[in-house]
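Input record, target 12 of the design panel.
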């Protein structure tokens, strides 16, 4: 009998990818998530059972008290990794942990990530703590990202420190809440990702390279449409970082290619699956299955290929609509729709598992109605000079 899997997360797209990847292989999957989360993954036919928890403070108790010993445990987001970190020893004694829960504070620290990237010879944009806004002297645009806690935005792009301070005030955030960097200019399609699994059993490093085509917010956001690409340098930089960090398990990296000087810049990594992890399926790269085999069948893992390539797309419909609502003229360009017509993996839709898609459609309808998407987009198209 295959060991059970526990997917600990926000029950969204990331968790859904893990549930489907393992459930389709006959692995029993249990979902543990916050009661307030979207509950997309827990709607899957491959989710055997579901435990909602009230908040992060009781998450470790739900795992220790309600789940069978020996389960393989996946965590799909940073806040949960950090919340579980103080209980890592107790969890590791009872379960097989995929993620580096006990090392979450170090591996999620952006300053540490940038120092390590520099140490292994990867360029890093000039960076400052947000609290030092008055001291920032640069002619380049700035990008600010949440430093330690979640805010109401993924990233903000500003022309200068004064504009950034104003944008933060408008969102109820303080400069001390963000990390500020020089913005690496270029299109969304110049942002590349490495999905990596470094085996605990053998040290093998499995890496897939991909790139973003569009993000939820043009210039700064999460992947809305992406593509698997053969980018050896991205894979090599990812391996370098995983080994230098001493990380075992999952590491999802991001880089940006500056077309002006041809340099690759390190952006960030996450010590857990990227939420677009299912982008690799059609290339034979199944991150959840690699991690499972590492724990349940290391001999099978040892015989697997470590490099993967292909040419197909990944589409998150809601994320792409978010992008197009801010850049509506793209809707008139036939190239915009190429990923929808080509070989692709949908973020949510799957013919063998329609319930998450139906639930996501209802949530999408609510999002469209509250934002008046179509009226706003048509207004931008009609605006003089748009």
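The sequence produced for target 12 reads:
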């Amino acid at each position: 009998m295959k060991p059970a899997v526990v997917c600990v997360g926000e029950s969204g797209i990331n968790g859904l990818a893990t549930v489907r990847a393992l459930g389709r292989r006959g692995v029993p999957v249990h979902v543990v998530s916050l009661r307030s989360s979207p509950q997309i993954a827990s709607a899957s036919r491959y989710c055997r059972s579901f435990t909602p928890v009230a908040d992060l403070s009781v998450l470790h108790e739900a795992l220790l008290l309600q789940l069978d010993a020996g389960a393989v445990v996946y965590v799909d987001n940073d806040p949960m990794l950090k919340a579980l970190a103080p209980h890592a020893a107790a969890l590791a004694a009872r379960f097989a942990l995929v993620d580096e829960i006990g090392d979450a504070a170090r591996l999620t620290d952006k300053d540490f990530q940038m120092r390590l990237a520099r140490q292994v010879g990867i360029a890093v944009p000039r960076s400052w703590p947000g609290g030092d806004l008055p001291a920032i002297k640069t002619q380049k645009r700035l990008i600010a990202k949440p430093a330690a806690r979640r805010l109401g935005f993924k990233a903000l792009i500003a022309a200068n420190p004064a504009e950034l301070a104003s944008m933060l005030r408008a969102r109820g955030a303080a400069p001390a809440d963000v990390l500020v960097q020089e913005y690496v200019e270029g299109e969304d399609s110049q942002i590349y990702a490495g999905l990596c699994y470094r085996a605990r059993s053998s040290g093998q490093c499995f890496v897939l390279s991909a790139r973003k085509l569009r993000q939820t917010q043009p210039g700064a956001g999460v992947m809305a449409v992406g593509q698997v690409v053969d980018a050896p340098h991205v894979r090599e930089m990812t391996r370098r970082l995983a080994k230098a960090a001493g990380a075992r398990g999952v590491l999802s990296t991001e880089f940006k290619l500056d077309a002006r000087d041809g340099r690759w810049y390190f952006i960030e990594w996450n010590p857990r699956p990227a939420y677009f992890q299912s982008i690799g399926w059609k290339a034979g790269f199944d991150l959840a299955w690699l991690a499972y085999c590492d724990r349940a069948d290391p001999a099978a893992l040892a015989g697997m290929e470590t490099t993967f390539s292909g040419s197909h797309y990944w589409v998150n419909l809601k994320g792409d609509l978010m992008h197009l609502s801010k850049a509506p003229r793209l809707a008139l360009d036939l190239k915009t729709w190429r990923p929808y017509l080509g070989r692709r993996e949908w973020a949510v839709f799957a013919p063998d598992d329609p319930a998450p898609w139906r639930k996501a459609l209802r949530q999408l309808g609510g999002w469209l109605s509250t934002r008046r998407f179509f009226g706003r987009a048509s207004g931008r198209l009609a605006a003089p000079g748009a």
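The chain has 14 helices and 17 strands.
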